Amino acid sequence: MKLTFLGAVHEVTGSCTLLEANGKHILIDCGMEQGADIYENCELPVAPGDIDAIFLTHAHIDHSGKLPAMVAQGFKGPIYATEATRRLCGIMLRDSAHIQEFEAQWRNRKAQRSGQPPYVPLYTMADAEQTLAQFMGYPYNEMIEVFPGINLRFYDAGHLLGSSSVYIEVTEGEEKRSILFSGDLGNKNRPLIRDPQTPPQADYVVVESTYGDRLHGPRPDYVGQLTAILRDTFQRGGNVVIPSFAIGRTQELLYLIRNIKEQGLLGQHGDFTVYVDSPLAVEATRIYSAGLTDYYDQETLDLLARGIDPICFPGLQLSVTADQSKLINEDRTPKVILSASGMCEAGRIRHHLKHNLWRADSTVLFVGYQSEGTIGRKLIDGADFVRIFGEEIAVKARIATLSGISGHADRDMLTDWLSQTAAPKRVFVNHGDDEVCDSFAAHVEQTLGYPAVAPFSGDEYDLLTNECTAKGVVVKITKVSDGRRRANAIFDKLLAAGKRLLQVIEGSRGLSNKELSRFTDQINALCDKYLRK
Predict the structure, then answer these.
(1) What DSSP string runs through 363-430?
(2) Per-residue pLDDT tens digits for 334-354
């Protein structure tokens, strides 16, 4: 009976942990890495076809994004999740597959021209469809016998519609152990969904630490903050561009904007248009409105009982097609543009940033965590320029953040949640920045007295003896600055141009002596010019 840590260890994304018990191999999450990669992750120690089941905490791509890759490589087992997670993955994984196929087409056009081997996508739409057929949706708080001696129960994690903490009971002969995976724990008092549920007692707890080194402070006035930002921007005649995660954060913002409009808080500017420009976000918004009442908080249920859709209002425009997206930036009236991705690394948000970042009258409003190395983090950190679609864009717009709206619990919320698990044998801290994992593990030991460790990729723990039985090889990826990366890319182009010149020289055999002499003089003149420099 053992745990092997694979992903989201000393990093925030790419969650993946292997449980081996009763002769079965079970993955808890199978996520994709997003943003900067800090450490090299070890390979899955067993073949995908030998994985017997996967337990999924929630639909976000950094927890679910590699599921179709597992299926493409031979995984045929069931994927256990809540019903809401199953539905949301229906759009998330199809969207991810579309991106994989589109990138492969783009890369292969370039590869063909340069004589490079073809690029194979991580997975295809067919793989995503097969993955979705392997999902099994369950409610919270129901004990599920997955295999003899292995039981599973989902608890509400309060992070996203359907997000869960995963509780596992394992019995091997006379020995019994329980393992609790926090998943991503939600902030408190957020729109639409409930606070995280009280966790059960467990022998071992694996807890996230995204905000394990900071406090959110008193609950902010979300509506008041957002109203002030909208009013200031509209008075200047600009747009409010919000890079927003398509699932969860977009719907929460629609909830807040509906309140602002309903209460008439913007006066003469109150008749503004809100564009949701992301096919994924549009589909997710429809799922949120599709009667999943078991996942909503009481305030939302009260609105529904009065016949009020909590995330729809006059002036809401849902943009699906590329043509609809392009028309948004032709509209000169002040407006709100909600678009994915939330960290500005992909999707239509990059087009809206290109059209608005250079405008001093506009605002780019961040409403979620920004990983190191992403465009979003660079903007928050005060970059004067960012590179989008190969072009340097000046940052003249106001860069703002909506404080306190984080989807993750802060240090004290995580600590309070852990305190209710009744003295586990060990706490494993993951899903946090490099130093944060270590600092939160130390905080758990000092504050709660629980033994805590922040494992690295490849670290293996025996759950019967509570001992580390293998250590992974820690390989830190050397960071390359954006400037150096661009310089390397430009030099590679120069090198390619030199190889092309050699091909031209080889092909010049048979030209007249006059033409060869002129060509030689041109090359020597170019060489002399740069040798003098």
Answers:
(1) EEEE-S---TTSHHHHHHTT-SEEEETTEEEE--SEEEE-TT--SS-BHHHHHHHHHTT---SEEEEE
(2) 999 999 888 888 789 999 999
